[in-house]
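Appendix B, example 12.
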Amino acid sequence: MAVTKRQEILFIYETKDCNPNGDPLDENKPRTDPETGVVTVTDVRIKRTIRDYLYGTKGLEILVRDTFDAKGYLKDGKGRCEDFAEEAGVDKKDNIPTKVDKIQKLILGKCIDARLFGCTLPVDKGSVKVTGPVQFNGFNRSLHRVAPIFVQGTAGFASGKEATQKSFREDYIIPYACIAAYGIVNEIAARSTQLSDTDVSLL
């Protein structure tokens, strides 16, 4: 049975000696607020953290994860969708709405992250598109100021074919951060993904 009441989420977690959420537009440095000195983490990173926990620790199937084809190449969204299309018994003769319906039902039934956060996948000229009932603030902040540290280390490989030494890597890390993320569970959107109270409890 789908969730029937709106719920609020306060997700608090700690990070130590790492980069909680790098900014690709700023040398992948930790995202920080220059005025307050706190670290910021996007909702995308929060959802990735939850997905990794559900899949890696709880052993639950998730939609958004790395999968590879027979040649070892990383699959894109279309390739991931084809995995489910085959399992859902999609026939080439099926019209697009039928294909979408079959694939969507299978994905929502198997993948907890799709029920939580929704999904969008290409299906021929159509798409599986479901709005997720669980949403977090776009930017979430640490409960205190942080001081990023620049560190250097030895990389695992040499910098070139004829190099005699390994190359060096450079990173910015946060020694410690306690991050709070606020989110909601929308009971109306939960109907379309069949998000259950059991799913929410696994957060």
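The chain has a mean pLDDT of 89. Residues 9 and 176 are 23 Å apart (CA to CA).
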